[in-house]
Amino acid sequence: MANKGPSYGMSREVQSKIEKKYDDELEERLVEWIIVQCGSEVGRPDRGRLGFQVWLKNGVILSKLVNSLHPEGSKPVKVPENPPTMVFKQMEQVAQFLKAAEDYGVTKTDMFQTVDLFEGKDLAAVQRTLMALGSLAVTKNDGHYRGDPNWFMKKAQEHKREFTDSQLQEGKHVIGLQMGSNRGASQAGMTGYGRPRQIIS
């Protein structure tokens, strides 16, 4: 990958808008969660956008994070013993994390692209993906989440309703308000189509 120079004009404006979405407080919370979830051997990044990016860039910590949310023996991502140094291997590792996160239940709209992290294009999107993953882990409440449950919002749960056959039959005889009402409707005063209105002077 070629190193890109600074951007100017419209691209610079767009990039600065994206960078403003990055949340430093959220970064602290996510770092704390990752350390609690994966163990202290993952280390701690330097504060700030660049430190956060460098810490997660090779995909190993992300892979350990998603693996920690699964029971032993069903880890979705293979984590190499030595962190990958080649660019395409690192990007492959990040892609494996994204696939595992999607399988875990993170929606496509909450996912970042590999280049968002790797080239630092949109680290706010990386934060969004990690928030969605944390929220799902808290919501599932299957014993694999470690840390303070208040760090993440619980996702809304599906609330299924069961109706008996007689209740379903009764519902067929009710005219919903959206259908309107036929009370008071008549054709009084209507003229046939195409006939002119009679004006008597």
TrEMBL record:
The keyword Transcription regulation does not apply. GO terms for biological process: epithelial cell differentiation. Belongs to the calponin family. It is found in: Cytoplasm. GO terms for cellular component: cytoplasm. The lineage of its organism: Eukaryota, Metazoa, Chordata, Craniata, Vertebrata. This is Transgelin. Residues 24-137 form the Calponin-homology (CH) domain. Keywords: Acetylation, Cytoplasm, Muscle protein. Its main location: cytoplasm. InterPro entries: Calponin-like, Calponin_repeat, CH_dom, CH_dom_sf, SM22_calponin. SMART domains: CH.
